[in-house]
Write a structure and sequence with these properties.
CATH architecture of the largest domain: 3-Layer(aba) Sandwich
Radius of gyration: 22 Å
CATH superfamily of the largest domain: Alkaline Phosphatase, subunit A
Strand order of the largest sheet: 7-10-3-11-12-4-13
Strand content: 5-15%
Number of strands: 13
Number of domains: 2
Shape: globular
Distance between the termini: 44 Å
CATH topology of the largest domain: Alkaline Phosphatase, subunit A
Structural class: alpha/beta
Order of helices and strands: EEEHEHHEEHEEEHHHHEHHEEEH
Number of helices: 11
């Protein structure tokens, strides 16, 4: 009896269209035809993809409204974590850990907070604040970035920060290379620019909407080629291809419909057009979330970073009726009840935007029927723990996703040491109780992608001991 062989195509297969002298290549979602006979690896024998994303907000939290009282598996979401309710099982929360990037015991400052992303104290050369070492997303990209067309993707939502002219830490959260010769990777703040970087679609000549016309023509050309591919795969994969192309077309329409903040000027630029204070945070954030989700799902990249709000960011969340910037509120809130309420609302708004992103990963399905949170680790933190004294004591780290079953599921709350209930936000002193090392958390995540990694960071913040509590 002759066995029928399952159709097989390469995971690198792209749908290509050419029109008006311009070409476009669009990746495909992971299909059954790209897997081995057992569906447990790629057809070439490589393990199934794992993905990694970092996410930064700024100016900290209110720890009495952020840190859960319970630890272990049976913990309750707090007011500021409640937006994550729909994905709570995927959340591993780490609180109370010491950030050893603080200079000589100094625990106040936004730049010290970036140690949770690099594992190094910051570098200060000539008054310019730079990263002391490569960021964790770039170490992950070193391990897995050569397997995809795009090594890593860097995006920003708001353009606002206080440190933009004070060194690279104000304008980037991703750094590649070695200490002393680091390369900062500034993020793209326009969804349209991100689209172009991922899909190779560039504005066409002629009318103001020429880019939309060319983009539509190219998508039509891609769809025509997809008909040939549909005849080579099974019914389930045909449905996935159709759904994928429909989603790409819908996302294209959403980007085109956004107001000027998301439209590139005639000359290429990394900035949005709308000034800080009038930014469309919600629309930009949601569009970036969709773009990153597509890029991860289609294996265009497996590594991304999101600078939602850069160091000491001065963005006012006017979309929820708040005129003061979050940085200003983080200082005023210790003296002013209205500012405290607005700061809390700003933090919840940021967490809602973060929750929208991780839920978009949960809702994206691969060929095995698993969602992207099953194969992804999202590593999120701020540039401090509490804003008014810029304390980095008890700087929390939120991990969402299992990284291919690497992290605990359902997730737990790991607390290095309890907080002081009489001063949970460091009003009396920025030296809140801490223990351990935030770099242990980062090293545990790094080893999901580079099992041979024997350490993370350097200097006082270096770790050689991955945190075991969060491992499955």
């Amino acid at each position: 009896m002759r066995l029928l062989r399952k159709p097989s195509i390469s995971r690198r297969t792209l749908l290509r269209g050419v029109t008006a002298g311009t070409s476009v290549a669009i990746g495909l979602p992971l299909l059954e035809a790209m897997l081995d006979a057992n569906g447990e690896a790629l057809a070439g024998g490589e393990p199934l993809p794992k993905r990694f994303v970092t996410w930064l907000v700024s100016n900290g939290f209110l720890l009495d409204r952020f840190e859960p009282e319970q630890t272990g598996a049976d913990w309750d979401l707090t007011e500021q974590l409640d937006p994550l309710a729909d994905v709570k099982d995927y959340v591993n929360l780490c609180t109370g850990y010491a950030n050893h990037g603080a200079d000589a015991g100094f625990v106040s400052g936004h730049i010290e907070g970036m140690t949770v992303f690099t594992g190094y104290p910051y570098s200060n050369a000539g008054g310019f604040y730079d990263a002391g070492g490569p960021s964790i997303d770039q170490l992950v990209a070193d391990a897995i970035g050569n397997t995809t067309p795009v090594r890593s993707l860097q995006v920003a939502v708001s353009k606002a920060n206080t440190f933009a002219n004070s060194g690279t830490l104000g304008s980037a959260i991703s750094f590649s290379g070695d200490p002393g010769s680091l390369v900062p990777l500034p993020p793209l703040s326009s969804p349209k620019a991100v689209w172009q970087s991922l899909f190779g679609i560039f504005p066409g000549p002629g009318a103001p909407d020429g880019d939309r016309v060319v983009r539509t023509m190219m998508l039509d050309a891609v769809k025509a080629q997809s008909e040939d591919l549909r005849g080579k795969v099974g019914a389930a994969d045909r449905a996935r291809i159709d759904a994928h192309l429909q989603g790409v077309a819908e996302l294209n329409q959403k980007i085109s419909a956004l107001a000027p903040a998301c439209v590139l000027p005639d000359e290429p630029s990394l900035e949005n057009l709308e000034p800080v204070g009038s930014e469309q945070i919600r629309l930009v954030s949601e569009s970036m979330s969709e773009l990153i989700t597509y890029a991860l799902r289609c294996d265009i990249t497996r590594v991304a970073s999101v600078m939602f709000l850069g160091l000491a960011g001065e963005t006012p969340y006017t979309e929820i009726g708040i005129a003061s910037t979050k940085h200003s509120l983080s200082h005023e809130a210790q003296y002013n009840g209205l500012a405290l309420n607005n700061l809390n609302a700003s933090i919840i708004y940021e967490m809602e935007r973060f929750a929208h992103f991780v839920k978009s990963l949960r809702d994206a399905e691969d060929a095995l029927g698993a969602n992207l949170l099953d194969s992804t680790i999202v590593y999120a933190s701020s540039d401090c723990s509490v804003g008014w004294l810029h304390s980095v004591s008890r700087q929390p780290i939120i991990l969402v996703g299992t990284g291919g079953g690497y992290l605990k599921y359902p997730g737990i709350h790991v607390q290095a040491v309890p907080n002081d209930p009489s001063d949970p936000n460091g009003l009396a002193s920025p030296y809140m109780p801490t223990a351990g090392n935030t770099s242990d958390i980062a090293l545990a995540c790094l080893k999901a992608f580079d099992p041979g990694a024997d350490g993370f960071g350097g200097g006082a913040a270096e770790s050689v001991d991955p945190l075991p509590d969060i491992l499955a």
